[in-house]
Amino acid sequence: MTGPADSAWISARSDDGWYGQLQGPLAIRHVAIQVADSARETMWEVSSPQTCDKSIRRVQYGALPTGFEEVVAPRVLSEGASYELTLTSCDYHEGVLYFSITNGRVEPDNG
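Given the sequence above, the corresponding structure tokens read:
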């Protein structure tokens, strides 16, 4: 996940060091972002219900990709909060990364 918090791009790539289980770039089937605390409030969730469009390799935060359904509408990501991003690829591999918002930008976090 890279870029400003209000329009960050999400992609499944192992070469950025955040996704140990994913070999990227991969086509995305499901994206979920939750607050990384005990309450685990979902901040945004989208899913491709039946088929998986293998051309979808990047998703912009808050923008519904073609063929996806919005499970949870996007909420504002808060400065200083830690979040967990879970991506599922078209072949059902899953990767998780943690990030926080610092000075309005997405930064990797240890979770």
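Confidence is low (pLDDT under 50) at residues 13-23. Try to locate this feature in the token string yourself.
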